Each structure stands twice: as structure tokens, then as C-alpha cells.
Amino acid sequence: MAIQNCIIKVQKRNRALVSFDEDRIGKAVLRAAETIDGFRQDYLPGINDKIFEAYGSDERIAEFIADAVVLCLNSQPHHLIANFPPTIETIQDYVLHALRSYGFQNTADAYECYRWGRHWLREGAINEMQFVGNGFPKERMEKTLEWNRQRGCNTVAGLNEIVRRGKLKPLVDESLAVYETSLDEAARKVMARLNAGDDLRMMWVSGPSSSGKTTTTVKLTERLQKHGLKFLMLNLDDYFWALIEHPSDWINDRNFETPEALDIELLNRHLRELLEGKTIEKPVYSFKEGRRVSSKPVKLEKGHILLLDCLHGFYPPITEGIDPSTQFRLYIETLNVVYEGDGSTNRLTKFTDVRLIRRMLRDVQHRNHSPLSTILHWHYVRAGELFSIIPLMGLADHIVSGGLPFDLAALKPFFIGPGGYLPKSEDFGPYQGFLDARIRYDRVRTLLESVEGITREQADTYDIIPGDSVIREFIGKSTVKIPHNE
């Protein structure tokens, strides 16, 4: 499709000006789509189906998105001034805007994760071996899929049959054994580092929201304490900026999901001072008042390891100036691989959707946030993790999957049926502009409705799901002390 273009030049990151080439935009978008098996993964009736009808092939859809980016660029008058052309970063921002505006959510996520991965590569924070591309660890996913296939739970339909036949308990036990074995391996790696003479002073447990960090942190430290290790846990929530410094959007929502929500300069200085043996005055943050209300002295005793459970634990500015050899990094994500339905659509259920369901449940039960507000807020969550969490997973010394094949069956009774927490479709009436939220809601609702769940009564007992399972962090009745639920 021919469109008017007034953009002549582009400013590179080194400030050099080069000729603008729209074809490069289309090729980059196409590559992102190809990494998730094509644009069909984003096909949404009533949202972008007409684009598929009009353009057909992935190549032509990519060209359409590139045209939309050019239209956005042309709408900015200062871009038409010879010495003030758009920058590479501006163009990438518009690519994401165009993809998300037309409902190509998964393609946008792949593009964004790759984009920020290249950013951290240029910054020297990761190397080529640690670059994770679109954020989906292919080898690990294939291994998990094969494990699920052998047990008949590689599809939602297969999981449903296991639940109907009353065979869920053996699957729960087997999958939890894999999780526990992974933690055993992590503990062995920590001890091996120490036995090899490493001056290990810090241990990070990081990963996207609602991946199971807290339960995993508790279980890993229990293992290491049996080896005589001692820990000082630092609550990084105390380093949030005051609420007045977090501007709200038009629905009075605030973005606490970005690392910039933390006082990085103070946190980094305190970490370095603790490792030097100094006493710090750690802030004490009141979420009720939305500000720091006091401080308390904290010192890392000799022989103790600083333990940090943090979304953005791998974010380079937090540990700037701290020797990497003094740190052990564990990364956790809900890396369970299950196909939708009977698998015929070739669409996998989304890691982020499982975490969204978990967080809706946690927020409504422990934080007085409605599931609707959690869904409307999720675009902040996703932007933060695609910038400073998922692209940095290659830094991990060990990766744990906090997602297990029975999660959906355990979560369903809390959302579907009498007293279920899932919002109604009409609840989104005042938020018509929130396409991201609507897409996620429709996908999550369809997924939950397709799942054969256990009953609330079964979820409340330990007959099927043990009290120390990761999913208990969200469905409740955990026998592991969860600090943020106290």
C-alpha cells in the first residue's frame, strides 16, 4: 500500500544520520513474528481479523505494520526538520505502539524482549551466550513439553482427562518432585561455589511477577541452612520512592513494576556498604502512607550471605560496582509448556497468562485489589519484565520452573463458578481503550473455561496439593510462611 512519507533520515545511537529505510522496519517486525511461529499466533476475531483478510501473508502484514509506523513518524512535525529526525529508539517505540494497537500482542512481546536484550548486550551487561532472543528458552521448553507428553498433560484436553479420571494426585507428586530436585541442584551449585573458594556474599532470587519467588526463596534457604549457611534478608520494597513521586495515569493507576520505582542509587550504595561490613540505615516504607516513615540499622555479619528476593534482581544498575563472583543468581519463571485445547491450534498457553491468573488471586485475597484492576495494570507488569527481567535471564546461575502442569486445574475453582473472582465482560465497559487488558481478559477467560478444575473443597485440603507447593502461595493454605501474605 502506497503511503506518503516525509521521513528522510534517522539518527543512530551514535548520533550519526543515515537514510531512512522503511523496509528495515518491516523485516524486523517479520523476524519477530517468525520467532513465535508467525502472525497467526496473534489472530483475534473482531480485533485484527480484517487485517489478515486484507493482507493474507506474514510478509504483507509486516509491511502493513511498517506503513503504520511511518504514519506515526510523519505525524510528529519535528521529525520533518532535517537536523531533528526520529531516532532508532523512537522508531522502535512506534513499532511496539503499532503492533499493540492492532492486537499483535505476542509479536510485540517478542520484538520488545529482543530489543532490550540487544540493549543489554550493547551495554555489556550480558554476552552473546547470555542473550535470550524473544525470551522463550527453546531447549528447556522442548524438554518440558516432552516430559508432559509422556504423562499425557501436554495439552489442556489431556490435563482435563487426568482430572476427570481422578488421576491428578500422581501428576502433582511427580511434577513437584521435579521442582524439588531443581532446588536441590541449585543448593549444590551454591555449595560448590563456596567449596571452590568463592567469596559468595549475595544470593538473588529473581523472576517475573507471580512466578513463585517467595516459596522458592524459603525452600532454597532451608536447604542451605542445613549446610550451616546463615542469611540476612533485605526487603527491597522499602526502597520504593514515595507515592507522590509515582505519577498516576487516567484511571489512577501507578507503575510500581519498573526498576525506576526503586531508589536505585540508595539501594546500590547500601548493598556495597553492607558487603564492606558497614552498618546502614535501611529505610522502612509504609504502603499505607505511601512513603518511608523511618529507618533501622542493619549490618551483614561476618559469614552471613545477603539474601534478596526481587523482581529486578538482575537489573545491572542495582549491583553496579559489585563483583559478580560474590553473587549467586537464581531465576524463576512459570516455564510449563501446555498446548491450548487438544493441541490442534498449535498455540501454547502463555506463561504470562498463568502468572496473571495467579496475581489476580493473590491481589484480591491479600492486597485488596480487584481482579479487574490487576488486568488493567498488567501492561505495566509486562513492560517491566520485558525490559529488565526476562532479557537478563541469561545471567542466572540456575533456572527453576515455578509453573507446574496442574496449576490451571488448581486455579480454576477460584475464578469460574459461584463466587468466582473472574470479572464480567461488561466490567470493561468504561475501559474501551485498554485493548491490551481486553485481549488478556478474553484469552484468560477462554483458557479457564476450557480447563477441568478441582473443587474449592479439594483446593482447601492437602489431599491432592501439598501445603508447601508453589501454587499454595496463591491459592492459600500454604504451610510455607509467605511474608507478603501475612
The SS-based structural class is alpha/beta
Instruction: Give the count of helical stretches.
Output: 16
User: Biggest β-sheet, characterized?
Assistant: 5 strands, parallel
Please name the fourth-level CATH homologous superfamily of the largest domain. P-loop containing nucleotide triphosphate hydrolases
Total domains: 2
Kindly report the spatial arrangement of strands forming the biggest sheet.
Answer: 4-7-3-8-9
Low-confidence region ranges: none
* DSSP, total strands: 9
* Helix content bin: 40-55%
CATH structural class of the largest domain: Alpha Beta
What is the second-level CATH architecture of the largest domain?
A: 3-Layer(aba) Sandwich
Question: Care to describe what's here?
Answer:
- This protein is globular.
- The protein has a five-stranded parallel beta sheet, covered by helices on one side. The protein has a two-stranded antiparallel sheet with strand order 1-2. The chain has a two-stranded antiparallel sheet with strand order 5-6.
- A hairpin with a 4-residue loop joins strand 5 and strand 6.
- The longest helix is centred in the middle third of the chain and has 28 residues, at 168-195.
- The chain has two domains: 9-130, no CATH class; 138-485, P-loop containing nucleotide triphosphate hydrolases (Rossmann fold, 3-Layer(aba) Sandwich).
- Helix 5 runs parallel beside helix 12.
- It starts with 8 loop residues before the first strand and ends in an 11-residue tail after the last helix.
- It contains 16 helices and nine strands.
- It is of the alpha/beta class and 486 residues long.
